[in-house]
Design goal:
Helix content: over 70%
Radius of gyration: 24 Å
CATH class of one domain: Mainly Alpha
CATH architecture of one domain: Alpha Horseshoe
Shape: globular
Distance between the termini: 59 Å
Number of helices: 19
CATH topology of one domain: Serine Threonine Protein Phosphatase 5, Tetratricopeptide repeat
CATH superfamily of one domain: Tetratricopeptide repeat domain
Strand content: under 5%
Order of helices and strands: HHHHHHHHHHHHHHHHHHH
Largest sheet: none
Structural class: mainly alpha
């Protein structure tokens, strides 16, 4: 739909007409999910920005940014949020900008914007505040602070989100957040409590709702815990007997491919490299290629390189890292995945004895990224590997 504004109108009248058009389209299209599509929301947003309608500009931008972030288009999401923030700040716009910044590697700026968003949210009238949006903000902020090593703070934020969903009577969202808490507990090594949450808090909810897909996903997360405990047989049984049949019945080819990848992980851990490699090449890659999912395809190619590296096929593993993985993460602006891949390249170079280049990658490519992200765990891993290179060169470790 095109709105024509006469060139003869003075600027104020033109802005008023544009604002009126934005309000009219918002009333017509926004509340009806069946008529809300990308092009219409973009049209509403353009009119709202041009006519200085901050409320409409904010909600349309938040919706668009969420869609862009779901496909890793962080730079564009950040640009849209920045434009809309010129009309006025909202917790949702600040949160969208923070998510985009975190994805692009600016952890410090992301944290500042999350904190500003939370402060704004806390100052809003509780009678009119969007509690669901506040819970989502707490969830995303917790995701950031986990990577920055502040697990207790993340748990506190997630607990607040659980309380909000409980008050709203939203049992599904509450179960999802409890799953995030279980993730943190699992990362801390508190496997018993993580397993209890999966079995006693999440699974019963999805069973009552008849949500077979979420139930299957949770069973997969239970298998993750069992795998971490070394219970590979039971983890493999769950993958094959509980998860795969559900995704096959649903026709969910992506989730089926992800599950097959988890099966390949177990086989690889058992030393069954041939079958693991077959699954990666014949079951996973073709699916991601058909879906046009370049990121998942790159991740899978990296897992193929892992197997080749374990077999001693270093040349082909290195080629995959440099020619198949890195360019994808660079195009996506995924700085974390790019840095991880560069670390894998350094591993291969180190195994070949190319210690100088391996050391350069660790210091100049990886370390600065994890420092900007505030990712204390990955930074510690890189520092340890730098020390390994120094030891391999029979030199004194330098002060880092």
């Amino acid at each position: 739909m095109t709105v024509l504004v006469s060139d003869e109108l003075v600027e104020e009248e033109r802005d008023a007409k544009t604002a009126e058009a934005a309000r009219a389209l918002s009333a017509l299209w926004w509340d009806d999910m069946e008529t809300r599509d990308w092009e219409r929301v973009m049209e509403m947003r353009w009119l709202a920005l041009a006519g200085w309608e901050p409320a409409i500009a904010a909600r349309t931008t938040e919706w668009l940014a969420g869609g862009l972030l779901s496909v890793h288009a962080a730079a564009e999401a950040g640009r849209l949020c920045t434009e809309a923030l010129a009309l006025g700040k909202t917790p949702g716009l600040l949160s969208g900008l923070a998510r985009a910044e975190a994805f692009q590697g600016d952890g410090a700026s992301a944290e500042r914007h999350y904190e500003e968003a939370l402060a704004m949210s806390e100052q809003q009238d509780t009678a009119t505040r969007d509690e669901r949006a506040r819970a989502a903000l707490l969830f995303h902020y917790a995701d950031l602070v986990v990577t920055r090593g502040r697990h207790d703070e993340a748990m506190d934020r997630l607990t607040q989100a659980v309380d909000i969903y409980e008050c709203l009577g939203d049992v599904r969202s509450k179960a999802v957040i409890q799953g995030q808490i279980a993730d943190i507990l699992q990362a801390r090594g508190q496997l018993d409590e993580a397993l209890r949450i999966r079995k006693e808090e999440q699974l019963p909810v999805y069973e009552r709702l008849g949500d077979v897909r979420s139930k299957a996903v949770t069973q997969g997360q239970i298998a993750d815990i069992l795998e971490a405990r070394g219970q590979l047989d039971e983890a493999l049984r769950i993958r094959k007997e509980e998860q795969l049949p559900v995704f096959e019945r649903l026709g969910d080819v992506r989730s089926k491919a992800v599950t097959q990848g988890k099966i390949a992980d177990i086989l690889q851990a058992r030393g069954q490299l041939d079958e693991a490699l077959r699954i990666r090449k014949e079951e996973q890659l073709p699916v991601y290629e058909r879906l046009g999912d370049v990121r998942s395809k790159a991740v899978t190619q990296g897992q193929i390189a892992d197997i080749l590296q374990a077999r001693g096929q270093l040349d082909e593993a290195l080629r995959i890292r440099q020619e198949e993985e890195l360019p994808v993460f660079e195009r996506l602006g995924d700085v974390r995945s790019k840095a991880v891949t560069q670390g894998k390249i350094a591993d291969i170079l180190q195994a070949r004895g190319q210690l100088d280049e391996a050391l350069r990658i660790r210091k100049e490519e990886q370390l600065p990224v994890f420092e900007r992200l505030g990712d204390v765990r990955e930074k510690a891993v890189v520092l340890f590997k730098i020390a390994q290179v120094h030891l391999a060169r029979e030199a004194y470790p330098e002060r880092l």
